[in-house]
């Protein structure tokens, strides 16, 4: 049995997958993109907020309310790899850049509509 101290240390050393996610309305093709240092958590957060009717992106929330959960898909768009040489780094800037690149790429292609905050 591990001690509390050992469990805390393990938790601090965890490196959850980080990167960009996409939420897609499969009826309209509209998409929402977000980034996080923890992909599993961000997907769970958006799904929870939508189910509770409290998502910050009002248009996305309205479509969720109107069409239901079954119309939406949640996927990882891209993962940001950890730098093995660094112990713990703040990847916030890299994640925001990743989001900007994906939004620009998708807007440029003109093939999708994007839910804006």
UniProtKB/TrEMBL annotation:
It comes from Proteiniborus ethanoligenes. This is Group I intron endonuclease.
């Amino acid at each position: 049995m591990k001690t509390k101290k050992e469990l805390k240390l393990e938790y601090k050393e965890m490196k959850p997958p980080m990167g960009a996610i996409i939420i897609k309305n499969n009826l309209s093709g509209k998409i929402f993109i977000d980034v996080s240092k923890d992909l599993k958590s961000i997907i769970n957060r958006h799904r929870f907020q939508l189910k509770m009717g409290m998502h910050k992106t009002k248009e996305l929330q309205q479509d969720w309310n109107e069409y239901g959960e079954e119309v939406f898909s949640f996927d990882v768009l891209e993962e940001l790899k950890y730098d093995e040489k660094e112990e713990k780094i703040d990847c916030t800037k890299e994640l925001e850049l990743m989001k900007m690149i994906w939004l620009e790429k998708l807007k440029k292609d003109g093939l999708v509509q994007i839910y804006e905050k």
